[in-house]
Amino acid sequence: KKKLDEGLEKSKTSFLSKLTRTVVGKSKVDAEVLDDLEEVLISSDVGVNTTLKIIERIEERVAKDKYVSTDELNGILKAEIASLLKENTTGVTDNFEFPKHPDNAPHVIMVVGVNGVGKTTTIGKLANQFKNQGKKVVLGAADTFRAAAVDQLIIWSERVGVPIVQQGMNADPASVAYDTLQSAKAQGADVAIIDTAGRLHNKVNLMNELSKIKRVMDKVIPGAPHEILLVLDGSTGQNAYEQAKQFALATDINALAVTKLDGTAKGGVVIGISDQMQIPVKYIGVGEGIDDLQVFNKQAFVDSFFG
Ligand code: GDP
After folding, report:
1. Is residue 36 within 8 Å of 29, Cβ to Cβ?
2. 31-43 and 9-23 helices cross at what angle (nearest 10)?
């Protein structure tokens, strides 16, 4: 909770100061206040469509209740946003329980995202959390496009103390994925996390590569990958929306991780992206440290974000 509060501090301070400015000297929520609130939400990176949806809901509430005081506005906003956010129900639960798969096969998470968003760090942090929960983890270095990606993942595997399957740079990513799942199965691992390359500039290649990796995984473990986790850099605001849309076209993303929420006032992207993509945010990154990854809890998030 403290870490979450700290991580969202900038977003919250920025939001609350804007909100305070819009309601100063006003006791009643009227059309003008709602107009201003709309601007505040958009400028907090919640995104236009999601903002309009939220404003509409509050308008309905105001119309129904006749009088809504500005003191109540933040509370109403929190409730509406919490009800809007997708529940984090697929795959790994809050306490890191994995769904059961046939033959006790490991839970397979394929991680996608463009370079620099914090993909490797997120995999390392995740592996650490799973390991701390007593789970057996195997990493797979299928982002073979950059030597640095493989090296970075090796460093994380050593740091966390979990095995990694890698074939170096330029290896066939599908072959690495295949080996990783074979190895995970043979070791009786609970979870396999596979890094992949995210070259958005060539969408057809990306799509083909991800489909091939998926096909191969499904051959080793039917149903795998169970989770396709897209990592997005929260500090890039609207860019993160664009990336989410592009990746959703390339593969079946079913979970999001939003990183670097510390040190940015753009935390509203978490709300907008989840709503626009209709994909739950599962993890949020709130720092560079190994423990700075949290399972997303929508109530905790709105409580920290909106004060
Ligand atoms: P990749 O290229 O997507 O694999 O990105 P990396 O995992 O190498 O991360 C890029 C940079 O972002 C590194 O300096 C990380 O320490 C940093 N980073 C990753 N996640 C977070 C986060 O949640 N908060 C902050 N402040 N930095 C992060």
Report:
1. no
2. 160
Buried/exposed code over 269-297 (b: 16+ C-beta within 10 A; e: otherwise)? bbbbbbbbbebbbbbbbbbeebebbbbbb
Any ligand 1 atom below 6 A from CB of 10: no
* Tens digits of residue pLDDT in 87-98: 766 666 666 678
Q: How far does Cα 228 stand from its chain's mean position? A: 11
Q: What's the predicted TM-score (pTM) here? A: 0.95
CA angle 19, 268, 244 (to 5 degrees): 155
Tokens for 11? 């977003």
Is the CB of 91 within 6 Å of ligand 1? no
Residues 270 and 272: their CA atoms lie apart, in Å, by 6
Q: Looking at 107-153, which runs of residues are DSSP E strands?
A: 107-112, 137-142
ipTM of the complex: 0.99
Q: Cα(260)–Cα(171) distance, rounded to whole angstroms? A: 30
Q: Does residue 236 line the site of ligand 1, with CB under 6 A?
A: no
Measured in Å, residue 198 CA sits from the centre of ligand 1 at 15
Residue nearest to atom 16 of ligand 1 (CA): 288
User: Ligand 1 centroid to 104 CA: how many Å?
Assistant: 33
